[in-house]
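Appendix B. Extra example for self-study. Work through it before the problem class; the solution is given directly after the inputs so you can check yourself.
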Amino acid sequence: MTAPDFVLRAVGHAYRSGGAALSGIDLTVESGQHVAVVGANGSGKSTLLKMLDGLVFPTAGEVLAFGAPLTEEALEDPALRRDFRSRVGFVFQDADVQLFCASVLDELAFGPLQLGLPEDEVRRRVRDVAGHLRIEKLLDRPPYSLSGGEKKRVAIASVITMEPHVLLLDEPTNALDPRSQVWLLDVLEDWRQEGRTVVMATHDLSAAAEAADRLVVLSEEHTVVADGTPDEVLVQHELLLSVNLIHEHTHRHASTAHRHAHAHAPGTDPDEAHGHRHG
Amino acid sequence: MPMTPVAMHIPDGYLGPQTYVVLWLVMLPIWVVAARKVKRTLKARQIPLLSLGAAFSFVIMMFNVPVIGGSTGHAVGATLIAILLGPWAAVIAISIALVVQAGLFGDGGMTALAANCFTMAVVIPFAGYYIYRLLAGDHPSPGRRVAASGGASYVAIVAGAVTAGVLFGIQPYLAHTASGQALYAPYRLDVAVPAMALEHLLFFGPVEALVTMGVLAALARTQPELLAARPAARPLRWLWAGLALLLLLTPLGALAPGTAWGEWSGAQLRTALGYVPGNLERYSGTWNAAMRGYATPGVGNSFISYFLAGVVGVVLVVGVSWGAATFLARRRDADEAGAMAGGQMGAAPAAPGRAHRGRSLARKTADAVAASVTDVLENEELAARPGLLQRIDPRVKLATLVLFAVAVSLVHAIWALAAFVLVTVVLAAASRVPVLSFVRKVWLSAGLLALLIALPSALAWFTPGRAVVSIGPVVFTAPGLLGVATLVTRVAAAAGFALLIIWTMRWSDLLRALSALRMPDLVVATLGMTHRQILTLMRTVEQIHLARESRTLTLGTTRENRDWVTERMAFVVRKSLKTADDVYDAMLSRGYTGAMPSLRRLRIGAGDWLWLAASVALCAVALAADRMVAL
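Solution. Structure tokens for the complete assembly:
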């Protein structure tokens, strides 16, 4: 049996200023799982993702990646770093941050070239990925001239050319128009077919429920308060209310006012899906 | 074309080859040392941090800072960057900002790039940084820190201006025709240095100090660790020597009794330097005539009359260049508003500035920034057209256009310069660049500014010779007018070639060319990232100003506006630093190892060789003809 992609044991992270970003996190991500880490702003989702990508390191507890400790020292070894970077890709929330090359072509080639792949192989990957994500026409353009949706596609493409086994996505649906959101869900479905692992951070419950087969809920105290399938987690209204992922809504139906918890999760029954709780 | 009429950006055509070549030779080792120091101190984060520093120094020059009575100025921000990043990192960051300004907007020349880097990326940050250190002491209180930064940035920018003034001022001594006609910048040291110093002592200096203090105060409030991070360095002994030298260089030196600054005789120079700069002795006859020309009627004492004449000259030059800058700024405002309304390049010029006088400060800045972003995007569009220059390999194109700019700086005859102007227009047409816009851009900004600034130099006061036009006591001389015409034509020709680079070369191609020409990865990567960050930051700046515009009903007092502007600049610094960290994470995440390899390969074909040969031949013929006729 192969080791899980990630194992976190009692992981905590404190900022240099002393404030906590994560505390007491126990989490195992198996290969091929699609996990959504959900939580309100400031709950530590982004820090958790950065930790899985070896950009931030725990100040308490330990992280194992592919069965080996993931530490700052370990990543200083060039061979280990190359191996880890080729296996794990990170799509940042702000595509502007991620697109730092002079052209889309350079952007897509950056990762594979850094991994030291031969040029023919890099060209093949760039061509395949650009074709698959339908961005061939953008290859010669500078990234800053793209629209928000195009930037997101290029950011994702620039990670996929590295052919990572694990994809970390920070708020992937943020600032995407509906069509791009549907496109993204299709891409995620492809990755599921290919057996890739996905960990995404989001506060968009509907996207999380649709794309992930496991939800991990972070509280505003930076701890894991729920972990299960979307069906198991989404019914816990009190919990979701307490971690500020859904909010009380006051509606007026005819002459009687009533309150219900409100989150825009999809489903067959509109009342169910919206978490309506009459009373 | 020049976005910020900061007096210190030296365009092409004002400095002769003897000056700019020396400055390139001075700058090369400085850049090498700076890159080494930065590599050691900033470690791996260098590229994002430097590019953000560069982008910030670029963006800071775009903020309109209210001064007095509705006038606004721009700051350079060099001392601020030196305080935040250290002086060596500031050298790289500001140099890169200047390259982007020259390569993207045509602010500052190509041949003069090293000279501009010397004044703004070396003199100002170093002077500013070490004076700040001296004034702030070892454990400064926040108040003292802010005050020290104000004093340091004021002195530093004046030092930079004096340096630029010296570079302008030595031109007449280095090159002129036998008749005393100037070939490059026309004013001598005794006018150029005090003029530059005065403008900065009175206007740009206070703007710089206000901005530096404001931003530093805002940062000290919200992010004290940014300022505390750097341990206080011990003031160096040579620093005092440097300060003493600066004092000697100040314009007061020019007014001191004895031999005035730059008025040494050939013999004195020989003793001091061991040689006499080219043509100086031949020139001395004319020179004495010039001194005679200084005699003011009714004032017997020759020293006093000389002194008075000098003062009048300085006031005249400051006034004219000030007026010219204001006039051009107003024109540009109108142009921008017109471009905004038309949404198209080459749209008919809008009505003169007065239609827009009602625009608030915030609106003005937002419009200017938006127009610049539009400019950049339109340049990329032009550069993608199928034209002559667009087809040339970027390396060859860059090399030949620089060759043309150098040739333009070498020829003396005005007809040869006019021929080069013609070449720029022909090339523009062959490259499907809208010729009218091209000519307007070259002549209405670079050409007109040169004309207005240089025109007083045609007075008998500055350039003696045969009188051509006399209006009462105001006498224009033949060599004077010819000198002005030469300068304007030279400036227009050089600006034309610079604009051709900007309009026919995509930024990514420029980077490829630089990389292929063996420019270090650090520089190319930082340049590339700076360009991107600038566009992102400019959008931020535009939104900041629009957001303010939408929330305010009154125009506010000068002071309120200024506080707001510096507060927003501090916001841009914070955002820049945060983005630098994020970008670095994103690079690391994709396996960044320090190199920036690229898939793109450049190939030089037969057409490129043909073009190269034709360019070299053209320049050679022009130079030969110019020299033969001169003999």
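Self-check: The longest helix of chain B spans residues 302-342. If your reasoning did not lead you there, revisit section 3.
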